Amino acid sequence: xxxxxxxxxxxxxxxxxxxxxxxxxxxxxxxxxxxxxxxxxxxxxxxxxxxxxxxxxxxxxxxxxxxxxxxxxxxxxxxxxxxxxxxxxxxxxxxxxxxxxxxxxxxxxxxxxxxxxxxxxxxxxxxxxxxxxxxxxxxxxxxxxxxxxxxxxxxxxxxxxxxxxxxxxxxxxxxxxxxxxxxxxxxxxxxxxxxxxxxxxxxxxxxxxxxxxxxxxxxxxxxxxxxxxxxxxxxxxxxxxxxxxxxxxxxxxxxxxxxxxxxxxxxxxxxxxxxxxxxxxxxxxxxxxxxxxxxxxxxxxxxxxxxxxxxxxxxxxx
Length: 318
Known about the structure:
Low-confidence stretches: 1-9
Strand order of the largest sheet: 1-2
Oligomer: single chain
Order of helices and strands: HHEEHHHHHHHH
Structural class: mainly alpha
Strand content: under 5%
Largest sheet: 2 strands, antiparallel
Mean pLDDT: 82
Shape: globular
Number of helices: 10
């Protein structure tokens, strides 16, 4: 096993110790993501409104050499089984879901590597590749398999296309909310601000407090008037734009993730503004809202980062 690991990571900078560390991180993160996803599952459809494990697998594959992908998947298997079986899910259903989860991550990472080797989302081209393949193609194709597994195992009473729709939107949302922040935090995304002036940290703190306060007010039921139920959805946008303009891809990704967690929690518990009366309508409403909100922010922060790189290159040439 260790010999195979050494061969798999026969890449400069990758050692056997790093191999074991990556596998441990993947296992812990996958288990934690699975617990979060199960907690956000609506019982009628058996599919989580936000399912982090697949997005975590995709991010891990994008950040590791191709020949080591099988080790990443092996590390996720025990975490998957422990999390699913402890939640009372039958063994056939748990194994079926692991197959569809791995299929989604492999489709996304494999096709993305064909078009772009660098996983960072700091150019417009890379963002388009990520949105088209990682956010759309991977979840779309794997949802056919996943929905079939759910129906064949008779795990829920919902129909095939209902499960397909919920699962596709769930995984697309998790990918667009989690993968950018993981990639940024694992590369140079946050380290650029590590040695910044103290006012930079003060600004980040004010931004975080403001976004958290707005999300708590909107999504925890503190505002209950029907007239404000739709309009208040626009309240977090200034903070998300602030994060994108001032803190680049990493800051904007963190803001989108915070907004996603609060909004999904509100939908699962039937809080305003996602209280249309049925679980399906709640899930679809929050998923579409977050996806539509995240796509322009992802594009904006990539364009800003690309422009900054161009300005720095021009100054160096001068």
